[in-house]
Amino acid sequence: MTEIWQKTGRQWRLALCTMMIAAALAAGPSCTPSFASAPASLEDVLTAIAPPPSAEALVLIPDRGRKLLALRSYVRSGAALAQRWSWTDAEIKAFAGSPGEQALLAEVNAVKAHFNDANPGHELYVHGTTRSLDEQIAKWNSNESVGAAAAEMEAAFTAAFGEAGAVPDPKKLAQWLRGYQPSKRPNLAAPGMTLHGRASAIDFQVMKDGRIYAGANGKQVESIWRAEGWDQKLKASITAAGPSFVGPLANPDEPWHYDYHPKADASLATAD
Ligand SMILES: [Zn+2]
User: What is the CA(257)–ligand 1 centre distance, in A?
Assistant: First the structure.
């Protein structure tokens, strides 16, 4: 219950709007004179079919193709989305300095120490423990691989539902989104869905001479990570010093990304 009272004004307006549209769509135009005279916009339909709490991210993605691509992921997750949704700013704040964060940092530092010892002249770098939703949305709105997949999806959407201005039937659109397969996956998870948003994943990058040398960059997977064996060197340090890390991520291929699954945490077990 307390969670409800923590909603921001923006979230409340969105939730209310979504409920009204969903109710109107379910009831049909005969019960909703305002919709009969002025049909819902595409934007309204997209917001209405977005499973909670994804509508709050959707409104911050202006490009239609990028919006459709994100909504595809949300619709496919359905009701499970809420459990993996990125932390709010308040939750991120609460995690900072907590025993949970201290345990994560201790393990990150142990991996770093092992790696730095084993690879003189290089050091491991970790940007942070949590990636905020705003940060994820900014990346989604600018990332090239997302742009390419979004352009492809927008063309497919237009072919299926007609030119801009057409408002598809929400049920048909949801079904289409669930079935749509992009020819090439973007190298980012849709905003809100990455484990980085809940301090449950870490990207380890290699630095040399104070600069990122092997980064969290899809273009360096073969040319640097594999060619120079950094994938194996990192894996060796994880195996030696990071028992809670699982990975690396295989799909998409990210040798720097490890999920974090802490074992039964005594401090959490006694918290309530
Ligand atoms: Zn990652």
Answer: 4
